[in-house]
Design brief:
Strand content: 15-25%
Distance between the termini: 24 Å
Oligomer: single chain
Structural class: alpha/beta
Number of helices: 4
Strand order of the largest sheet: 5-4-1-6
Order of helices and strands: HHEHEEEEEH
Radius of gyration: 15 Å
């Protein structure tokens, strides 16, 4: 059973969550590396890659996170990518990443895990 009618509806829901997170400045400032497991069209990943804040002078400044999307089919990810965004074709249940991750994002994709408990342990 699908929770959302399409990827646009799914992303609209995740935007509500993302916008809610964005008001927590200390949390947002503490992040550097973000991985989107099951990135689909890459819309959430793009949100992270282009996230910004207002500095003390009222100027918009990018967080410039290092963003990676993992999905079986990365052909759906919309181009062009921001410079700090990349995708990897792979299985989010088993993929091994060679870097420290500050935030693992997975919106409307974890339900596709064949073995959810093993997947969470792996993550």
């Amino acid at each position: 059973m699908d929770l959302f009618a399409n990827s646009t509806d799914s992303h609209a829901h995740s935007l509500n969550v993302l916008e809610g997170l964005s008001v927590y400045g200390e949390f947002m400032e503490g992040l550097r590396t973000i991985v989107d497991m099951g990135c689909g069209h890459g819309r959430d990943l793009r949100w992270w890659a282009t996230a910004s804040y207002l500095d003390d002078a009222g100027q918009q400044r990018p967080y410039n996170y290092d963003c990676t999307g993992i999905d079986y089919d990365i052909s759906f990810v919309e181009h062009p990518y921001p410079q700090n965004m990349k995708t990897i074709k792979g299985d989010f249940e088993t993929i091994e990443l060679d870097k420290k991750i500050d935030l693992l994002w997975s919106h409307d994709s974890f339900r596709y895990a064949v073995n959810p408990l093993d997947c969470l342990r792996h993550w």
